[in-house]
Amino acid sequence: MRTIEQTLGYQADAAIHKVAELRHPVRFTVAGMLAGAYVGIAVVLMLSTAGPLAAADDGLTKLVSGLVFGIALTLVVFAGAELVTSSMMTLTQGTLMRATPRGPAAGALGFTFIANLLGSAVFGILVAVSGVVHDNPAAADMLEAMIDAKAHEAPLQLFVRGILCNVLVCLAIWMVARLTTDGPKLAVIFWALLAFIASGFEHVVANMTTFTLGFATGVESATWSSFGTNMLWVGLGNLVGGALVVGLAYWVIGGSPRYRAPSEAAAIETPATA
Questions:
Q1: Spatial distance between the Cα atoms of 239 and 113, rounded to a whole number of angstroms
Q2: Which pTM value belongs to this model?
Q3: Which domains does the chain have, with CATH numbers?
Q4: HEC profile for 228-273?
């Protein structure tokens, strides 16, 4: 397992890569769209499996929802895609270490958000057209109940739930960065996402697909106003949770280091020979 200091260097390299991808907007967009779709897969899987339990008022509804949602981050990490919520931590750490300038880092974050939204919308529309939610009344009822609850939450509640959610999501990505073998990576993703979903926290990208499905299937509470409010407050909460609670905290714990390029680090660690 990597040390915290080594992991910060790993994260800085990842941040540099994300900013560099701005020079390749097509492939950056595709990577972001895939992440939005991968999280959408988890939303649909949750509705399909936990919906019947919710209809029966079964106490296992939240547990099952959490157990299946890990597929979202598993696909993002192992298939490879750009997810805005984890980038909130990674780009912050890259900026704190002075590996990436603030402006380009913010630009990469905004670009990823838009690409995630586009991918979520396309995936959600395809799912709606497929009829899988409509053909599963319990899933449709769960979707309606979820959107109705999100539409009636106060901004402060959405904001704080967004913070708590992205603390867990970014902890999963942080632990994945510390680990060097795949089995433990799968385990930490599973536990972190189980905690986030079963606890009822809010993830801005998951909500992109949820609201798209609501728009496409005619859920009454799915309005542009409720969608915009959710994106704003959950997104800001996710940013605080990922950038400050996890990203900044581990930079401080790691000694507030500055980035050294691999060649520079090797030069420092290896004495020069005459």
A1: 11
A2: 0.92
A3: 4-260 (1.20.1080.10)
A4: HHHHHHHHHHHHHHHHHHHHHHHHHHCCCCCCCCHHHHHHHHCCCC
